[in-house]
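Re: weekly structure request thread

Next one in the queue (213 aa):
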Amino acid sequence: MDYNQIFSWLSKIILSVNVIVYSKGLSSFYSRKTFRIFFFYIGYIFLFQIVLFLFWLFKINNIFLSHFYFIIQFVLLSFFYRELFKGKNQKRVINAVMITIISIIIIQYIFTPGLFNKFNLSEIVLTSVPLIMYSIIHFYNILGKKKEYVYINSGVLLYLSGSTLLFVAGNYIVASDSILNKSIWIINSILFVVYQILIFVEWRKSFYKKKIQ
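Done, posted below.
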C-alpha cells in the first residue's frame, strides 16, 4: 500500500473543499483583504496541484515547478501576514525581507542557472524560515487579544517547520536510502493533510458561524 499516495490524494480532497468553502466568503461582509489574500493562496496551491498532476500524467519532468511553488507561496503568505500585523515597523520588516529574499534568489539563478533544473535547498530555507518567524510573531501579537486566524497560523507554523526540517534532513541523510526517503515524503504528506484540516477548522470556527448569524 502506497501511503504517500493515500495522504497525497486526501490532502487534495481537503484542499478542494477549502477552496470551495473559502470562495463562498469572498462576497460576504467579513471578506477583508486578509481573507482574500489567503483565498488566493489556497487557490494557487489548488491550481498548482492540478499542473503537477498533468505533468505526472504525461510523464514530464516537473522539478523546475518547485521554484515557482516556494517563491509564490512565500510572496502570498508574506502579504497575508503583512495584513495581519498591525504595527508599521512589522509591516516594513516584511517588505524588506521580501525584497531581500527575492533579490537573493534572482541573483542566485542569474549566476547559477543550472539550479533551475534542480531541487534548490537554499531556496526552500530562504522562503520558509521568514514565514515560520511571521507565524511566531503573530502568536505573540495576539496574546491577550482577539485570536485572529489562529488555526491557519498554527497550520503554517506546523507545516512549514516540519517540511523544511524534512527537506534539509532528506538532502543530507537519505540520498542513498530509498526507504528513509519514502518515509520522509509520507511524513510531509501527513503534515500537509494536517495543514489543510486546520485551514478548514479556521473556516468552521471563524467564518461559518458568521455566515449562519
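The chain has one domain: 3-208. Residues 3-208 form one domain.
Next request, please.
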